[in-house]
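Renewal narrative, Specific Aim 1. Our central claim is that a sequence can be written position by position from structural information alone. The example that follows is taken directly from our test logs and has not been curated for this report. It begins with the structure tokens describing the chain, in the order in which they were read.
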């Protein structure tokens, strides 16, 4: 695949259904263990669409798609999103961002689409005054960590989780 035929653009509300379908295809391809605990693809898609609509309405969601124009129309080949949140510290409150989703179709990996998505998100965040971002992504941890180190992220605190219910 060729990166020059792929356009990186900010998402629109009418992209949400296609983003849901694309993300679910990527989760299935990656054999995401979280996919096994979701009630149903349809319910999960509906819930995530609502969450994304709310974030967009609150202007707390910075998301981009990578799309290729095909004879059948636009085909999503990548998607990345960050959420802006307030974080309270002992003596201050600041807006920070968390990159929670980054997906690139397997056949389009390794040609710079993931980096282009992250760069577009970082540019937007910088322009609105966000000073730092964290990345919380699943998948192959070593591969993911190597990707983020390559584009300038550094390893911070290790976060461990345990379900208590």
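The sequence written for that structure reads:
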């Amino acid at each position: 695949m060729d990166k020059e035929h792929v356009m990186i653009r900010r998402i629109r509300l009418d992209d949400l259904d296609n983003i849901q379908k694309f993300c679910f295809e990527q989760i299935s391809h990656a054999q995401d263990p979280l996919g096994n605990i979701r009630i149903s693809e349809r319910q999960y898609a509906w819930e995530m669409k609502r969450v994304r609509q709310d974030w967009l309405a609150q202007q707390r969601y910075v998301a981009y798609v990578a799309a290729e124009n095909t004879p059948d129309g636009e085909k999503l080949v990548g998607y990345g999103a960050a959420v802006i949140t307030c974080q309270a510290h002992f003596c201050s409150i600041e807006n920070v961002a968390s990159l929670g989703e980054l997906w690139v179709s397997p056949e389009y990996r390794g040609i710079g689409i993931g980096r282009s998505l992250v760069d577009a998100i970082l540019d937007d965040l910088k322009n609105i005054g966000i000073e730092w971002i964290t990345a919380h992504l699943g998948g192959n941890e070593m591969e993911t960590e190597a990707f983020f180190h390559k584009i300038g992220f550094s390893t911070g605190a290790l976060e461990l989780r345990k379900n208590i219910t």
